[in-house]
Design brief:
The complex is a heterodimer of chains A (163) and B (119). Chain A has 6 helices and no strands. With 163 residues, chain A is an all-alpha fold. The longest helix of chain A is centred in the last third of the chain and has 25 residues, at 133-157. Chain B is globular.
Chain lengths: 163, 119
């Protein structure tokens, strides 16, 4: 498609805006690191509309940009661990029949949290933080389901296009 | 939602609930000491039985009082560890990712020594 770069720019901007909006939401879930993952909405939609290559490029671009804008070099590292694992799992599950956008998004949310926890455990060399795993699994399940539900509704309403 | 979505969600929920139950079977008990990891290395171990304030590399401050430990201060922007509730049970932890500092409760209450071991 000839407008590929333009579409990619729009999606990157959208994902960045969602990252920013998320920093504004003052919801503290009481558990460190639990976030809604609004930007993942764009990643899921792009994954379905175009493909995993574009979603991967978008994910990495967003994490690096958002990291420099709202976070730090460290937060980029954690985000990449979660984001890349999440996308890999989503792309993998999407190929199997019997999963809808919601299931794919749930798998993405859960694996995102698992990836971040793994990096955190390595970074501080403390196995005890593994105790957060069940909480993070449930958190990933809920946020993933929510993002998946919204993604499904958005995908229903926007025209198909190939980037 | 399709059938596999539900199976996936149920599977994750079951794993989470089983993992949540593990501490119940092991029995949660008051810990004996707090070990502090900084930059991947053991910074020191401090008894929960002694009220004390520990400065960790000038970036974090640990306060132990009344048998519980909390991070009183950190120079990082997110302050997640400072807002974390105090810890006292064996296996509980507080982490400060930006500074690569972690506190973890270890051992039994009966192991509490009058003198903490500082390294």
């Amino acid at each position: 498609m000839k407008n590929r770069a333009a579409y990619f720019g729009v999606f990157t901007a959208l994902a960045l805006i969602f990252s920013y909006v998320e920093t504004l939401i003052p919801i503290n879930f009481g558990i460190p690191g639990v976030k809604l993952g609004l930007a993942n909405l764009i990643i899921v939609i792009v994954l379905y509309q175009t493909g995993w290559r574009e979603a991967l490029l978008l994910s990495v671009t967003r994490i690096v940009l958002a990291g420099f804008l709202f976070g730090s070099l460290f937060s980029i590292l954690y985000s990449l661990a979660g984001g890349l694992l999440s996308l890999a799992v989503m792309a993998f599950i999407k190929r199997y029949k019997g999963f809808s956008v919601i299931g794919v998004s749930i798998a993405g949310g859960v694996s995102h949290n698992v990836g971040q926890l793994a990096v955190a455990m390595l970074a501080v060399s403390t196995w005890q933080i593994g105790y957060y795993l069940p909480v993070l699994l449930i958190a990933g399940l809920l946020t993933g389901a929510l993002i998946g539900f919204v993604s499904r509704e958005v995908l229903k309403r926007i025209p198909e296009r190939n980037m | 939602m399709k059938r596999n979505d539900w199976l996936l969600a149920a599977g994750i929920l079951i794993v989470a609930v089983v993992l949540l139950c593990v501490p119940l079977f092991r029995g949660t008990q008051n810990g004996g000491s707090v070990s502090v990891m900084a930059d991947g290395e053991l910074f020191g171990t401090y008894s929960l039985g002694v009220d004390q304030t520990v400065d960790i590399n000038g970036s974090n401050r640990l306060v132990i009082s009344g048998g519980t430990a909390r991070m009183e201060w950190a120079d990082c922007p997110d302050q997640v560890c400072v807002h974390h509730r105090e810890i006292s049970l064996d296996g509980e932890s507080i982490i400060c990712l930006p500074n690569r500092v972690a506190l973890a409760v270890e051992g039994r209450e009966t192991d509490r020594e009058v003198d903490g071991i500082a390294r």
